[in-house]
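User: Sequence in, structure out. Go.
Assistant: Echoing your sequence, followed by the structure tokens.
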Amino acid sequence: MSGHSKWATTKHRKGAKDAARAKVFAKLIRQVEVAAREGGGDVDLNASLRTMFQKARDASVPMDTIERAIKRGTGELEGVRYEAISYEGYGPGGVGILVECLSDNRNRTAPEIKNIFSKNGGDIATPGAVAWQFDRKGSIEVSGKHSEDAMLEWVMDAEGENLSSNGENWIVTTEAPLLAAVRGALEAAGAEVLGSDLVLLPQNLVPVTDLSEVKKVLRLMEAIDDHDDVQNVYANFDISDDLLAAYEG
């Protein structure tokens, strides 16, 4: 399973324990706001906003909160102007890491992200050094209650790209432009969709086989993800389920 999928699963479990709902809401609202500013406030005409809107609704962000974020993005309400910034770097063991931020002050964010890397055994890389190792894809999480046979049939009919499991639920991968269409087709077929998003998936994986290295990599990921300006963090590590369980324990 890819670094993204492993990290998403680990973060989901950790988030459930920490009940960090307010922080998740804040990040999602910021994503909605920026999508509205860049492509307009019409969900039907702005594909990026449609994706962020659905992501926020899947996370149970209240509708009025989402609507206010859209209005701030379009200028109907006053708000802070956020800028999309990406950082690339390497973690322990040569693991490639991509960080997507929304910041109102890049002069503050850049040194803070660099400091997180250096304090946790990583290094910031030059732009492009890591990004080429990842592909933008659509990712749809579907309830694990459905059988594999049913899922395979639904994914084929919906023109999805790949089906995998995160240990609890099914993950359907799509071409990025087809995310909304594939999600709609899965729901129409009877699949219980839990969430969807545009993600970055690694082309190749870097195995991390030592528990001490696993701890270093995941602590770096946690520290990056905990920064208020960070919206998404992706990595190309591959950690076995046994080592992941040992870390979580």
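User: And one key feature?
Assistant: The domain at 18-74 is CATH 1.10.10.200 (Arc Repressor Mutant, subunit A).
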